[in-house]
Write a structure and sequence with these properties.
heterodimer; A: 501 residues; mainly alpha; two-stranded antiparallel ribbon; two-stranded antiparallel sheet; 22 helices; 47% helix; B: mainly beta; Immunoglobulin-like; 22-stranded antiparallel β-barrel; 10 helices; 59 strands; 7% helix; Starch-binding associating with outer membrane (chain A)
């Protein structure tokens, strides 16, 4: 090959090879896929979803088995052995609540977000404390503070509830203030109330009553009676639910992420395995309760076509029974299942009540029964029952006849009357309101829960959940101190926490 | 190098003629093996410039100055001899051949070639032919061939194996460029060699990604054929069938529960006719309504005999796999350079019906020498990989194993379901044995289609200029571009987890990845008397840009129309983009003293855009030393002995965008027509003071050849300090965050590697070579952060692969404690059952050659390590596991409880523990359990639990067997064929393991096992022709 000026060509080639596009590093550090700031509405949707907690507490979920409303006989999909593990913390969600306040800062609806943020804080502290006992509070949520606290100390349960009650007081005050602001935009991302602050305020106060009543054994320590009275006797300051249309509840539909747990596609998975709990069903049977025909189907084995309303065909499964035999009996058609029409035929099922009118009315009735405030307990007791009946679209005539049932007629402001309130409250909690049915049982022993051979907690209904395992790995000293001060150093699910002592 | 040496010798020889002030003349003769005279052997007088060469008969004559007496006799491939003429009168010198490795040249980091003896770290070359007993993925051919390298071969179709080098994922380098490979775009026919740089010590120059060592693939260039050209055709045909590992089932009981089953609609209308277990009635020919029972006049099902019609369903369903590979290569070597073109086609038909794979690889490489000094080398590779259907094998209704071996029973014959549409409902409704949870396997195979197509293009151009014999420079640019498209057609009436509405879906995803790597290198080498220097100075720029897009429908409006817009409710597509760059500057220097002492050092500075700005530049060094002791000391029977030591530190970056405080999005949900988009706070706080991660490695090795090279060892001990890493320091969740990015966590891996080679027999017509590799390592947690002494459950000093599980509750004597229903109680706190990583791994390869025949066979596997046998666990739950066919089970179906768990019940007292499960007091009293229960309940609550399914990972495989016949060249003399060989081959022929329901090959330190497609053996034929 002839000689040529290779140097020239090679230089060009070398330069070509070295040409590449470098980008200043400053342009590469940010994540183009994620936001560093979002509208508070998106954070609100997340928080509400956690409050709602459908996957644990929702219809036909585990919590409702612990409440003894239904029983599963298929051990592969679950059990009701009460061998409880750890409860969840909600501090990550509280960080999202704080972020929501931060993102709302300077917006015209800042006060609104802040008001409901206070409610969320109260809600989650109560959520955790009623399950666990002492929890971190004063030193909590300070990982990103100037002086970071990464292993917060635990506060005693009394301090936690003082803070919860203060937050609910403040939330009501701030929402009152926010409502007076004219021309400000509504909060959005709110799938419960679509930004309706009146409904939010009623919810906060109804919830306030729930918390106060849950502290009934601590009247002396926390001055519960006068706090209850302050709310009930001042409806202009503390507006409350006036009917079931005010309920804080989640509705379901045939849409992505919103299908009811039982539906036409789940029939094959659940039908012969999900049985109505005897604890609940027997209460309906005992009082000839019309709700039984709405929520349950009769057991085919006992059903007689010529006597379709005979309650003997309504057989619930006992929570404590061994699952194997229960499955065999279920396959023989000897149990009542959730109503096919109400629960399996659509994707809507029924709404899931988070905080409801009926519960509020039962709480007021209980407060009057206990003499903590004035009023007619019977009226509120009956309002509560009617509210629940309306939820099931029971005809007025049937409601009226039920209310005249001698078992149901209010027996006065005495223990019998209280038992009636608590029993009917349990019935109205059917498949809703998270662990409230269990909490009321834990506080009052009503109704009596079933225990049997399938119980794997030494024949007891536990009184609490364990602390998260991660605390023993990442906050060992403080969690052990909390166990020492409350439960003799053991993370015992049968130990009694302060609020129910 | 060689040339330089020859020149030097020539110059010295000439000089020796000029300078001739003789004192005494010495004459002698140099012989080699078998006393054959060696010509051109260099004879030099030590301490002078006098030297000469032997003549054709091995004779030499040299003048020795008065004060000198020592001759240095050296010849390439033989050991240097120092001869003192004062003490030796016999001047017939017999040279001993040096061991092969002395002159073995290996490719080190960045593609730099070095003599192996100079290396102070561990490098191992893969021996043997990669093109014969092959697997669709070339990396599987490395199995057992390199000590310290575990190839965890997947059981699944079109799935690359996972490689673990000293327990970590190594970098894969092609032609000196660390851009990785998807491993499908390389055909073994194009591979010249593969060698493995075992640790950070060897791979430090690759920068961050080289911290765990590297597997280096060097592709072919030109040809070594004497004619200057070659046309090569290599054809493989392999059949795949015959199970190595497949779960065994009982076929005496059908679907149902406690012996009860009756089909009505398969949707829960009958008795346990939906989403069922396999605890149903015994196959006794009794009459039961079934999915295919005929209808009577009223449309009611007529009961039919209950028989195990489908005892061989899986066998009947799976097909023989086929693997065909063809490679055609044309290569030429000419005075100005070389060129090679290669085309490979791989076709594979999987054992699951309707699966296939086509891979087309085109490879073009060429070198052109502009002049003596300047050359350019370029290559381009294009790969097209296409597979119209590759089923999802994960646990779920998408899996054949799930549908046929775990939850599906023997009550139906899969062959009856080959026509999978229901009459009159074509396109809408599958025909099946159940209509809630399970799917017709044939319907899945032919209608649930998961396609994939990958286009991969990479190009490299490399310009080299030699300024003089000592100095040269290289500029190199590479671009790798990968595009992948995947889609999934999910038909009406198919159901899987979360898609129970069963109204079809369509999904598409794309990704595009561009990587570019450019480097500039300056190399200098020179010798100064006994000292040699080899130095490199370089820099590189690495850029990676990635983007993807994914969208799916939320059920289809029109059945069978697979478009994204055909969705019942609106959906949101998702996408992701990333871009980072790193700049590296490095230097390396190798010093040598004579031919026995070598010192190497490297240093590198990286600048990485993924790190916080103030700490994004970091430096790390390495140093290595090797001494060839056999050069200075004569040890009996030892031909070659080298010791080495090295230390290296490598810095690395963090996962892109992982150290930013950003919001995260949760899945959107729609309530009454309004869609909500939840966002939440990232639970890990960022840290702007974050430093790069570092790991360092210290390694010692000894290499030796004994008994005239009949036996060779290479033994390495290493300690890798992995850390301080970048990790999420765990906070108490009550702090509002789960933790913060921090530098911390250091683990220490300690390991041994032994490679042994031996040639027990070697002569003209017969030879036998054996290579054995063995390695073991353990990784311990050494430090966490500050005074924190645990990382989650693992405590400082404990092995990081400690395996904790929920065990049954037991008495101090180990007896099971059962509840009042007879079911074993679970311990609330976890206990350690062992360690997940294998104790050791090993491979042995044999090569026997007799005349024109050669036989290669290799065996490899791993010993120890624990794993949960998930498929067995599930089958014990479902009632399909072969062991569930017990006498008590026969009572279950009669409604009689007969099983009594061997255990105790608690009769009183209390067990009190602290929050971590340590016993505070135990006053429990026990009595033998007498509760009778259904066997079904025991099987589920005992055998169906993790604690009853922990098995050893020990397995071995007869990996490769190849019998090759090379046609004698005499026979080909008058044909156009230059050389030819035919081979019979087999792969994975025997699987040795205790539990053969699971193929343990795909696991290294995993604790859980996914479902697998049964693994099979391969048998085939290879023809190789050179024209």
């Amino acid at each position: 090959m002839k000689n040529y000026n290779s140097t020239k060509y090679l230089t060009i080639l070398a330069v070509m090879l070295l040409v590449f596009s470098c980008t200043p590093f400053g342009d590469l550090t940010d994540d183009p896929n994620k936001a560093t700031s979002v509208p508070p509405s998106m954070l609100l949707s997340e928080v509400l979803n956690v409050v709602n907690n459908i996957s644990d507490d929702g219809p036909w979920r585990e919590t409702q088995r612990d409440n003894q409303f239904w029983v599963i006989c298929f051990d592969y999909y679950g059990d009701q052995d009460y061998n409880w593990g750890a409860a969840n913390f909600r501090y990550n969600t509280l960080s999202t609540v704080i972020a929501m306040e931060k993102e709302a800062k300077g917006l015209d609806n800042q006060e609104k977000y802040e008001a409901i943020a206070k409610f969320f804080k109260a809600y989650f502290y109560d959520y955790m404390s009623k399950r666990l006992g002492n929890i971190p509070l004063t030193e909590a949520l300070q990982a990103s503070s100037e002086i970071a606290i990464t292993q917060p100390k635990y506060d005693d349960q009394k301090s936690v509830y003082i803070e919860v009650l203060d937050l609910l007081e403040a939330a009501n005050d701030q929402i009152t203030k926010a409502k007076t602001q004219v021309g400000t935009s509504a909060i959005s991302g709110d799938f419960f109330f679509n930004g309706d602050l009146d409904k939010w305020q009623k919810t906060i106060n109804a919830y306030h009553l729930r918390v106060l009543i849950s502290l009934s054994k601590k009247n002396a320590d926390l001055n519960i009676a006068s706090k209850v009275n302050a709310i009930i006797s001042n409806p202009s300051k503390y507006p409350l639910f006036s009917g079931i249309s005010d309920n804080m509840m989640r509705t379901f539909s045939d849409e992505q992420g919103n299908r009811y747990e039982l539906n036409p596609t789940s029939y094959g998975f659940s039908r012969n395995r999900n049985i109505i709990g005897a604890t609940y069903l027997d209460l309906l049977k005992a009082n000839n309760d019309p709700r039984i025909y709405v929520v349950a189907d009769p057991a085919p084995f006992f059903f007689k076509a010529n006597d379709p309303l005979n309650l003997n065909a309504y057989v619930g499964a006992k929570t404590g029974d061994e699952q194997g035999q229960m499955q065999v009996d279920s396959d023989a058609g000897k149990y009542s299942y959730p109503s096919e029409k109400r629960y399996y035929s659509t994707f809507k099922g029924e709404p899931y009540i988070q905080i409801g009118y009926s519960e509020q009315e039962f709480n007021i009735a209980e407060a009057i029964n206990r003499g903590w405030t004035t009023g007619n307990a019977e009226t509120h007791y009956e309002n509560a029952i009617k509210g629940s009946m309306q939820f099931y679209d029971i005809e007025q005539a049937d409601i009226d006849s039920f209310l005249t049932n001698s078992n149901v007629v209010y027996k006065g402001n005495n223990t019998n009357g209280l038992n009636q309130i608590l029993t009917q409250k349990y019935v109205a909690f059917f498949d809703n309101s998270g662990i409230e049915a269990y909490c009321n049982f834990r506080r009052t022993g009503i109704p009596s829960f079933d225990i049997g051979p399938a119980n794997k907690n030494g024949g007891k209904i536990p009184l609490r959940w364990k602390y998260p395992v991660s605390e023993f790995e990442n906050n060992t000293t403080n969690v052990n101190a909390a166990l020492g001060s409350q439960y003799s150093g053991s993370d015992d699910i049968n130990a009694t926490m302060w609020i129910i002592k | 190098m060689k040339k330089t040496k020859a020149n030097l010798i020539l110059i010295i020889t000439l000089l020796s003629f000029v300078i001739s002030h003789s004192q005494s003349n010495i004459k002698g003769k140099v012989l080699g093996e078998n006393n054959i005279p060696l010509p051109s052997v260099s004879i030099a007088v030590k301490g002078s410039t006098i030297s000469t060469l032997t003549d054709l008969d091995g004779n030499f004559k040299i003048e020795l100055p008065a004060n000198k007496s020592i001759l240095l006799i050296s010849y390439i491939g033989y050991k240097l001899v120092e001869l003192d003429t004062n003490t030796t009168s016999n001047l017939v010198i017999v040279l001993k051949p040096d061991s092969q490795s002395l002159n073995e040249v290996v490719i080190t980091a960045l593609g730099i070639k070095k003599e192996k003896k100079r290396l102070g770290y561990s490098v191992q070359e893969v021996k043997g032919d990669l093109t014969k007993a092959r697997d669709p993925n070339v990396l599987n051919s490395l199995s057992g061939k390199v000590s310290g390298l575990v190839v965890a071969s997947s059981a699944e179709f079109f799935t690359a194996p996972n490689l673990y080098l000293r327990g970590k994922k190594p970098l894969i380098v092609v032609d000196g460029v660390p851009l990785g490979t998807d491993s499908w775009n390389i055909s073994p026919d194009d591979i010249e060699s593969i060698n493995v740089l075992k640790g950070a010590n060897a791979a430090a120059l690759y920068g961050s990604d080289g911290g765990n060592g590297a597997v280096q693939i060097t592709t072919k260039r030109g040809t070594k054929d004497k004619r200057g050209f070659v046309v090569e055709l290599n054809q493989n045909s392999i059949l795949q069938g015959g199970f190595n590992a497949v779960p065994k089932t009982q076929n005496n009981y059908g679907p149902g529960s406690y012996g009860n089953y009756a089909f009505l609609d398969g949707k829960g209308g009958g008795i346990n006719d939906a989403d069922y277990d396999q605890w149903g009635p015994k196959f006794d020919g009794q009459l039961i309504t079934q999915y295919d029972s005929p209808l009577d006049a009223n449309g009611k099902l007529i009961p039919t005999p209950w028989l195990a019609r489908g005892a061989n369903n899986l066998n009947n369903f799976l097909e023989t796999g086929i693997l065909e590979t063809t490679n055609l290569a044309v290569a030429s070597q000419f005075d100005k350079g070389n060129v090679r073109f290669s085309m490979s086609h791989t076709y594979q038909k999987g054992i699951n019906p309707n699966t296939k794979l086509n891979i087309y690889n085109f490879n073009l490489s060429s070198k052109y020498n502009f002049s003596e000094k300047t050359s350019i080398d370029a290559s381009a590779n294009f790969s097209l990989q296409t597979s119209p259907n590759n089923p999802n094998v994960n646990y779920g209704p998408n899996s054949y194993i799930y549908n046929m071996l775990i939850w599906g029973g023997a009550d139906y014959d899969v062959r009856d379901l080959r026509n999978y549409w229901q009459d009159g409902k074509e396109g809408l409704q599958q025909k099946n044995f159940e209509y809630t949870r399970y799917n017709n396997p044939y319907f899945m195979a032919y209608e649930w289609l998961r396609g994939k197509q990958t286009n991969d293009f990479r190009g490299q151009i490399n310009l080299n200029h030699k300024f003089n014999t000592n100095l040269n420079a290289t500029i190199r640019t590479n671009i790798a571009l990968e595009n992948e498209f995947e889609n999934e057609k999910f038909p009406y009436s198919m159901s899987t987890y979360g898609r129970e509405k069963a109204q079809g879906d369509y999904k598409e995803s794309y990704y595009n990845n561009i990587k570019s790597y450019t480097d500039f290198m300056l190399n200098y080498n020179n010798t100064f008397g006994d000292f040699g220097l080899n130095a490199t100075l370089g820099s590189n720029i690495n850029i990676e840009k990635y983007r993807n897009l994914f969208a799916t429908t939320d059920y289809l409006i029109v059945p069978g129309l697979y478009t994204l817009s055909n969705t019942q409710t609106p959906v949101q597509p998702t996408n992701y983009n990333s871009h980072y760059e790193t700049y590296g500057y490095y230097a390396s220097a190798d010093f040598s003293y004579k031919s026995f002492l070598f010192l190497g050092a490297t240093g590198r500075i990286d600048k990485d855009s993924r790190l916080p700005e103030k700490n994004n530049s970091f430096f790390y060094p390495s140093v290595s030393l090797s001494a060839v002791l056999s050069e200075v000391v004569n040890i009996p029977i030892v031909d070659y002995l080298k010791v080495r030591a090295s230390y290296a530190k490598v810095g690395s970056s963090l996962a892109i965008y992982s150290n930013l405080n950003t919001y995260k999005l949760n899945s959107p949900f729609t309530i009454n027509g309004t869609t909500y988009n939840p966002a939440y706070v990232n639970s890990v706080l960022s840290n702007q003071d974050l430093q790069p991660a570092f790991n360092s490695s210290t390694e010692f090795g000894i290499e030796t050849k004994l008994l005239k090279n009949k036996l060779g060892f290479d033994i390495t001990y290493y300690e890798n300090k992995n850390g301080p890493q970048i990790f999420d320091l765990q906070y108490s969740a009550a702090s509002g965050y789960d933790g913060k990015k921090q530098n911390g966590i250091t683990t220490k891996t300690k390991g041994w590697e032994i490679a042994l080679t031996t040639s027990p027999i070697k002569n003209e017509s017969f030879s036998w070579n054996i290579g054995l590799n063995w390695s073991a390592y353990k990784e311990y947690l050494q430090e966490v952060y500050g005074d924190i002494t645990n990382n989650g459950r693992i405590k400082v000093g404990e092995r990081v692969d400690a395996y904790y599980i929920t065990d049954f509750m037991r008495t101090n004597e180990g007896q099971l404690i059962v509840g009042n229903d007879g079911k074993p109680l679970q311990n609330a706190y976890q206990t350690r059952v062992g360690y997940a990583a294998p104790d050791w791994s090993a491979g042995i390869a044999n090569n026997l050659r007799y005349k024109n025949f050669s036989l290669d066979f290799s065996l490899d596997g791993r010993y120890g390590g624990k794993i949960e046998n998930y498929v067995a666990l599930k089958m014990w739950q479902s009632g399909r596991q072969i062991g569930t066919d017990t006498p008590e089970r026969a009572f279950d179906v009669q409604g009689i409880k007969s099983y009594v768990t061997d255990g105790v019940i608690i009769t009183g007292g209390l067990l009190t523990t602290d929050g971590e499960g340590n016993v505070l007091s135990d006053t429990r009293t026990f009595a033998p359990n007498t509760t009778k229960m259904y066997y079904q309940d025991f099987s589920k609550s005992y055998h169906g639990q993790t604690a009853a399914n922990i098995i050893d990972k020990t397995f071995f495989k007869l990996r490769e067997v190849t019998l090759t016949y090379n046609l004698p060249s005499k026979k080909l003399k008058n044909t156009f064929i230059n050389s030819a060989s035919v081979s019979l081959l087999g792969r994975n022929l025997i699987y040795f393991a205790k539990h053969k329901d699971i193929d343990l090959d795909q696991f290294n330190s995993e604790k859980g096992s996914p479902l697998q497609t049964p693994t099979v053996k391969s048998y085939g034929l290879n023809v190789n022709l050179k024209f």
